[in-house]
Write a structure and sequence with these properties.
The complex is a heterodimer of chains A (about 110) and B (about 120). Chain A is mostly beta strands and about 110 residues long. Chain A has strands at about 10, 20-25, 35-40, 45-50, 65-70, 70-75, 85-95, 100, 105-110. Chain A is globular, with a radius of gyration of 13 Å. Chain B has about 120 residues and is mainly β. Chain B contains no helices and ten strands. Classes of the chains: A mainly beta (about 110), B mainly beta (about 120).
Chain lengths: ~110, ~120
């Protein structure tokens, strides 16, 4: 069971849109519609932003959206704001009752 | 509002067993459909799922940690616990507890996390 692959860092200017990818295999991301995304600010616990690939929990801004194509899931943040600067993690069901996280992506708002 | 709170020693000696408890408040740990999980994060590194448990006691673990991990539940106290044996410095991390719906990885809410350092 290997960690899902995410870019180490992405950046964007306020108002722009950015996309963070999360690449796995047909045994995890590609095999199930069970991908979630988390936002983590320094020193804080992660916060669920997207679940089941594209569903948003109550209270999460609609600027956050999720999608999946093949073995790659994506998190898109539109209308980038300063408070979006954080680390982002994806997580997928990996079969056989196991879960796997991505390595994390640091988002910098320029 | 459901809240989770981790508790336990912040310092554990190498080769000993790390023990943490997560107390659930504002709801019942015996709620159907929900699993209760442990996730850890070494300093400056990413998240790692450790394992999860259902109120009935059904468990599933990360294969890479399975030989050293035991997760248990105490419904009378609305708590679930983590034991990690034979710890090394590599087990130093912030340990979080969180709720999710099996088998989905939608962890929500999370506890605030507790730092456990493995050192002599």
């Amino acid at each position: 069971q290997s960690a899902l692959t995410q870019p180490a860092s992405v950046s964007g200017s306020p108002g722009q849109s950015i996309t963070i990818s999360c690449t796995g295999t047909s045994s995890d991301v590609g095999g199930y519609n069970y991908v979630s995304w988390y936002q983590q600010h320094p020193g804080k616990a992660p916060k669920l932003m997207i679940y089941d690939v594209s569903k948003r929990p109550s209270g999460v801004s609609n600027r956050f959206s999720g999608s999946k194509s093949g073995n790659t899931a994506s998190l898109t943040i539109s209308g980038l704001q300063a408070e979006d600067e954080a680390d982002y993690y994806c997580c997928s069901y990996a079969g056989s009752s196991t879960l796997v996280f991505g390595g994390g992506t640091k988002l910098t708002v320029l | 509002q459901l809240q989770l709170q981790e508790s336990g020693p912040g310092l554990v000696k190498p080769s000993e067993t790390l023990s943490l408890t997560c107390t659930v408040s504002g709801g019942s740990i015996s709620s159907s459909s929900y699993y209760w999980g442990w996730i850890r994060q070494p300093p400056g590194k990413g998240l790692e799922w450790i394992g999860s448990i259902y109120y009935s006691g059904s468990t599933y673990y990360n294969p890479s940690l399975k030989s050293r991990v035991t997760i248990s539940v105490d419904t009378s106290k609305n708590q679930f616990s983590l034991k990690l044996s034979s710890v090394t410095a590599a087990d130093t991390a912030v340990y979080y507890c969180a709720r999710h719906v099996y088998p989905k990885p939608g962890f929500d809410p999370w506890g605030q996390g507790t730092l456990v350092t493995v050192s002599s």
